[in-house]
Design goal:
4-stranded mixed beta sheet; signal; Glutaredoxin; Putative secreted protein; alpha+beta; Thioredoxin-like_sf; 229 residues; 11 strands; globular
């Protein structure tokens, strides 16, 4: 039986069939007491084939007494880069970024559903995965009006459970999904038809490829995405 939250989310955000899924990034932390509801929400939307849901753990909560076992400074920098693109230096945990462009602070299922529904109207077929004698490849389809962008390989752990011993969530056993471990630029992209080889995923990990625009060197709108598995 679906939870009330799941039923609400699926009712509000039934995405039409799209060639490329919508990418949802959640900036979260094991030491943040406001984050568990957002972590649970991410795990629910991760089951939707029209969504690529990614959990990026930031490190600025580590000072309160619990060092996040998944946090990377690069993810903190990424969150601040999104904020700078919006003309602010303020970030929140939890914070969702949908499609590289829409920011939602807090675990608001209704607001997230509305934004997902809006992004679901985009049906561009930008990225495809193919096989060659040498292995897997990602193919970027031609796209107009791309001034600066990059193809990115995201490597993530599908699920993990963590017992938090200190900090705001001390004593809790936390479940996390789609935990990002690697964020690697494969190649710059300017909208041309290109093919890029993909390395094998580490054991137990999965991968997706994103095509993301750059705005003054900062991450901008996500133009396409594809699962590599």
């Amino acid at each position: 039986m679906r939870s009330a939250l799941t039923s609400l989310l699926f009712a509000c955000a039934a995405l039409p069939a799209a060639a490329d899924p919508v990418v949802v990034e959640l900036f979260t932390a094991q030491g943040c007491s406001s984050c568990p509801p957002a972590d649970a929400l991410l795990s629910e939307i991760a089951a939707d084939e029209d969504v690529i849901a990614l959990s990026l753990h930031v490190d600025y909560w580590d000072w309160i007494g619990w060092r996040d076992t998944f946090a990377k400074p690069a993810f903190t920098e990424r969150q601040y880069a999104y904020a700078a693109g919006d003309g602010t230096s303020v970030v929140y945990t939890p914070q969702f970024v949908v499609g590289g462009s829409d920011v939602i602070a807090g675990p608001s299922g209704i607001e997230l559903a509305k934004v997902l529904d809006a992004h679901g109207s985009v049906t561009d077929d930008v990225l495809r995965i193919a096989s060659s004698p040498e292995g897997r490849e990602v193919m970027a389809m031609p796209m107009k009006n791309v001034e600066a962008a990059e193809l990115v390989l995201v490597t993530y752990l599908p699920q993990a459970q963590v017992r938090v011993l200190h900090g705001e969530n001390a004593g809790r056993v936390m479940d996390y999904h789609n935990i990002v471990h690697g964020w690697d630029v494969l190649a710059p992209w300017s909208g041309a038809n290109v093919t890029v080889p993909l390395p094998d995923a580490p054991k137990g990990m999965r991968q997706v490829v994103l095509a993301q625009s750059l705005e003054d060197g900062r991450p901008g709108a996500i133009l396409g995405a594809v699962r590599a598995d």
